């Protein structure tokens, strides 16, 4: 069942979204050559605890994955694109890192993701990141009352094909609100003017993700980490969006670098 949120409830989700956006901005500023993935994970744990928030990832146990997820971030490097497990890995020059997080504050959830390159970037990596960001903005623009869910999916697929990328249909966006995953499923490819009508109060996470040279995926032995089937680099962008009578409202916009509520980002202490 799809639950439409009131203006007040969307406002409460926006509070969570602001925190998520700020923390993602911090993490992207901290991510650099020589930083361990576990440093990022522990930095996020501290910030979530300080805020009195709750991670939606901790103890998450869907049908895929081996055992409950025991981290607050998904950190996916290079050919990994979704659900990457934080682990003892030091970022190297040119690594492409995707950071995904979802938290709840006072019972309302927001979910967002971004991809960055640390060190000297490969232009093709910047291109695939750009494609996900452009697709996300196109999808947000299509999230207007009176439209159809397929308008959002079609916008993502059109951008992917313009950039020369295929679209994998196994994972996409989703409804969000009181829970991290609610109805409806938001596919990353589809037909415009099809699907449910977009009504004010609908809140969704839109998340295009692409692989450079394939639309096929494979799983690591951990049952969580999803990689491109051919080892090509990947990228992932995501925002939580509310459909309002005035158009789409992005709840997880990130502040400009250095403008987070916590002040300038600091290098995290080593993970213990």
Automatic annotation (TrEMBL):
Subunit structure: Monomer.
Disordered: annotated segments: 250-272
Sequence positions that bind a divalent metal cation 2: 111, 174, 207, 238
Protein family per UniProt: Belongs to the peptidase M24A family. Methionine aminopeptidase type 1 subfamily.
GO molecular function, one term: initiator methionyl aminopeptidase activity
Protein name in the entry: Methionine aminopeptidase
Cofactor: binding comment: Binds 2 divalent metal cations per subunit. Has a high-affinity and a low affinity metal-binding site. The true nature of the physiological cofactor is under debate. The enzyme is active with cobalt, zinc, manganese or divalent iron ions. Most likely, methionine aminopeptidases function as mononuclear Fe(2+)-metalloproteases under physiological conditions, and the catalytically relevant metal-binding site has been assigned to the histidine-containing high-affinity site.
The entry's keywords: Aminopeptidase, Hydrolase, Metal-binding, Protease
Pfam family, one: Peptidase_M24
EC number(s) on file: 3.4.11.18
PANTHER family: METHIONINE AMINOPEPTIDASE
Cofactor: Co(2+); Zn(2+); Mn(2+); Fe(2+)
Binding site for a divalent metal cation 1: 100, 111, 238
Catalytic activity, reaction form: Release of N-terminal amino acids, preferentially methionine, from peptides and arylamides
Binding site for substrate: 83, 181
Annotated Low complexity bias: 253-272
Gene that encodes the chain: map
Known function: Removes the N-terminal methionine from nascent proteins. The N-terminal methionine is often cleaved when the second residue in the primary sequence is small and uncharged (Met-Ala-, Cys, Gly, Pro, Ser, Thr, or Val). Requires deformylation of the N(alpha)-formylated initiator methionine before it can be hydrolyzed.
Domain (Peptidase M24) ranges: 16-245
InterPro entries: Creatinase/aminopeptidase-like, Pept_M24, Pept_M24_MAP, Pept_M24A_MAP1
């Amino acid at each position: 069942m799809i639950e439409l949120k009131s203006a007040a409830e969307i406002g409460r989700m926006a509070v969570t979204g602001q925190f998520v956006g700020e923390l993602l901005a911090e993490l992207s500023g901290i991510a650099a050559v020589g930083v361990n993935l576990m440093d990022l994970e522990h930095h996020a744990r501290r910030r979530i605890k300080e805020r009195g928030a709750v991670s939606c990832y901790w103890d998450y146990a869907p049908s895929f994955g081996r055992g409950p997820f025991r981290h607050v971030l998904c950190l996916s490097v290079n050919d990994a694109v979704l659900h990457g497990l934080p682990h003892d890995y030091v970022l190297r020059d040119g690594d492409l890192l995707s950071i995904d997080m979802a938290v709840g504050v006072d019972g309302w959830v927001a979910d967002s993701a971004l991809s960055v390159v640390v060190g000297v970037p490969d232009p093709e990596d910047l291109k695939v990141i750009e494609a996900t960001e452009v697709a996300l903005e196109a999808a947000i623009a299509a999230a207007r009352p009176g439209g159809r869910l397929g308008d959002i999916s079609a916008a993502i697929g059109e951008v992917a094909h313009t950039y020369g990328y295929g679209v994998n249909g196994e994972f996409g966006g989703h409804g969000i609100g009181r829970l991290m995953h609610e109805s409806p499923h938001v596919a990353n490819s589809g037909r415009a003017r099809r699907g449910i009508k977009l009504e004010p109060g609908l809140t969704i996470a839109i998340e295009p993700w692409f692989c450079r040279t394939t639309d096929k995926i494979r799983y690591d032995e951990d049952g969580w980490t999803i990689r491109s089937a051919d080892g090509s680099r990947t990228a992932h962008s995501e925002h939580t969006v509310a459909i309002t009578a005035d158009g789409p409202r992005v709840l997880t916009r990130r502040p400009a670098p250095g403008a987070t509520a916590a002040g300038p980002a600091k290098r995290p202490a080593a993970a213990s």
